[in-house]
Design goal:
By secondary structure, the chain is an alpha+beta fold. It contains 5 helices and 13 strands. Strand 1, helix 1 and strand 2 form a beta-alpha-beta unit. Helix 3 crosses helix 4. The protein is globular. GO terms for molecular function: biotin--[biotin carboxyl-carrier protein] ligase activity.
Length: about 280
């Protein structure tokens, strides 16, 4: 897997080289590179976001499916609903170009990539769960998130993981659905770069396998063991409405299924939290 240093991409990133001051933040000594010569990992210094760098590279014809960007810091990271993603140094900020899936999978992409990341971390001994549609939790606290963006025929997954630090509760938005945490010492001896290589290698296999071997309906049943709050009373809210019900699973089109007032409701947007959750709870 070639490691490529980004050139100076004006407006979205600073130049990056092996002796860059931030290099030690993501590179570990002697990290093995997988034997996949067709995949590239671009490393860049502080940037607006890894997604912006990936979009630029894709537009220049320099980012093929399975290639990725790994950034040391972001000054304009973003999450679901264009919310600000607080990007503290020492954490993982990546953008991964994925092959376009069949149209039947289009609305399941956030859940699919989230499941892939959860399974990949699980292989490393980190017991994470997926909070619909795109948050990664460790013991009920948010340690990461997924953002899917399509730019023409380019499909990008933005992936953020709190490795060394996480935002303070006071820095989170007022209506945050869960408190933040970081992986701390759970990945001792693994650099951010080494972690990313492992997730990409595992993720490529799982993503390809599910798209070729499963239907969205079959996948919606497969993922149930990693769904946070499944079977519990939850509330899904957006700017227009709020629905409370028992969390019954994920629909084949990526929605969350609630049993509410004797009816089966499928919602496709909103923020999920356990019913009765209040700020400061784990």
């Amino acid at each position: 897997m070639p490691i490529l240093w980004t050139p100076d991409i004006e407006g979205v990133t600073d130049a990056f080289s092996a002796d860059h001051a931030d290099a030690s933040a993501i590179l570990g000594p002697g990290e093995p590179c997988a034997d996949r010569p067709d995949e590239r990992v671009y490393l860049c210094g502080p940037c607006s976001s890894a997604l912006d760098v990936a979009g630029y590279l894709a537009g220049q014809g320099c980012l093929d499916p399975w290639d990725s960007v790994l950034a040391t810091r972001q000054w304009a990271g973003r999450g679901q609903m264009r919310r600000t993603w607080i990007s503290q140094p020492g954490n993982l900020f990546a953008a991964w170009r994925l092959p376009m899936p069949p149209s039947s999978w289009q609305n399941m992409l956030s859940v699919l990539v989230g499941w892939v990341m959860c399974r990949g971390l699980g292989e490393l001994g980190v017991p994470v769960t997926l909070k619909w549609p795109n948050d990664i939790l460790l013991h009920g606290r948010k340690i990461g998130g997924i953002l899917i963006e399509e730019r023409g025929d380019v499909l990008l997954a933005g992936i953020g993981l709190n490795i060394a630090s996480c935002p303070e509760d006071a820095d989170l938005r007022r209506d945050h659905a869960c408190v933040a945490a970081n992986l701390g010492g759970l990945l001792r001896g693994v650099s951010i770069f080494g972690l990313w290589l492992r997730l990409v290698n595992f993720g490529r296999l799982r993503y390809s396998t599910e798209l070729s071997d499963s239907t969205p309906l079959e996948f919606s049943q497969l993922i149930e063991p990693v769904l946070a709050y499944l079977g519990a009373l939850v509330r899904v809210s957006d700017n227009r409405s709020s629905v409370c019900g028992t969390y019954a699973g994920v629909s084949p089109d990526g929605g969350i299924v609630l049993l509410a007032d004797g009816e089966r409701r499928v919602l496709h947007s909103g923020s999920l939290r356990p019913e009765g959750w209040s700020e400061g709870q784990i």
